[in-house]
Amino acid sequence: MSRIAKTFARLQVQGRKALIPFLTAGFPEPAHTVPLLHAMVEVGADVLELGVPFSDPMADGPTIQRASEQALRHGVSLRGVLDMVAEFRQRDQDTPVVLMGYGNPIEAMGWEAFARRCALVGVDGVLTVDFPPEESHTAFAHLEAHGLDPIFLLAPTTRDERIAEVAGLARGYVYYVSLKGVTGAANLDLSAVEARLPALRRHITLPIGVGFGIRDAETARRVAAVADAVVIGSRIVQEIENSTPEAMLGNVKRFVHGLRVALDE
């Protein structure tokens, strides 16, 4: 059983929902990434999504775009992100880590070499935004050969046939994009999320995490009432962006702890 599956199984027994914070690797400085990951685990993160900086993102809003641009200016590469995971694993062997990014850097490294390195450093899952299920069978076969969970996005507009196909390919959990837009958008319709999830569960037996547009503890609590996990990224990146270096860890811990409390209420 993968670290991701073990985590969701434990939470189910406890009657709790997973908190999955997102962080752009290398932002604001490469040296900050691993301490931020540890800090979020300390205050209740269950799974960590680590964004691989990319120059031409299609799903990321302005906040995460700025973070990626700054990380790229620091020279952060896919290999560098994998090195960060290896450093994180020196202290934490339990918390699942999911890489979230785009296909080009992986294609440049080669899927087999990428999957082998992921398994070696302790990555648990890979979410590639621009690899739809129709085009991912060969690529994700390499992930599964190395014990990694391929994770897919579903959108409000996803057709039933596509949902069924994703259900057959996905491992770990499925990420439901709660709105038609990019990360950090402010037009989240909670009633639409609540209405959509039962239809997804007719096809999907894996846990379903909901992300995009979740910006505060109250919204996270309401989403957790119907989902298995809450994914939050842009708001955390904003917290980092608006903090001084001295206050950054404390501010992020305070915000993530507030989410944890809301999910456990």
Name some characteristics of this structure.
TIM Barrel, 48% helix, 9-stranded parallel beta sheet, single chain, alpha/beta, 265 residues, 12 helices
Report the strand count. 9
CATH hierarchy class name: Alpha Beta
- Whole-angstrom Rg: 17 Å
Please estimate the helix content: 40-55%
Mean pLDDT reading: 92
In the CATH hierarchy, the third-tier topology is known as TIM Barrel
Beginning-to-end CA distance, first to last residue: 29 Å
Report on the biggest sheet. Answer: 9 strands, parallel
Number of structural units classed as domains: 1
**The CATH fourth-level homologous superfamily:** Aldolase class I
Proportion of residues in β-strands: 5-15%
The parts where pLDDT drops under 50 for at least 5 residues are: 181-185
If you had to describe this structure to a student in words, what would you say it looks like?
With 265 residues, this protein is of the alpha/beta class. The chain has one domain (3-264): Aldolase class I (TIM Barrel). It is 48% helix and 14% strand. It contains 12 helices and 9 strands. The protein has helices at 3-14, 33-42, 62-73, 78-89, 103-109, 111-121, 137-145, 160-169, 190-201, 217-224, 234-241, 248-264; strands at 18-24, 48-51, 97-101, 125-128, 149-151, 153-154, 174-177, 208-211, 229-232. It has a 9-stranded parallel β-sheet. Strand 1, helix 2 (33-42) and strand 2 (48-51) form a beta-alpha-beta unit. Helix 4 runs parallel beside helix 6 (111-121), helix 6 (111-121) packs parallel to helix 7 (137-145) and helix 10 packs parallel to helix 12 (248-264). The longest helix is centred in the last third of the chain and has 17 residues, at 248-264. The protein starts with a helix and ends with a helix. Residues 181-185 have low confidence and may be disordered.
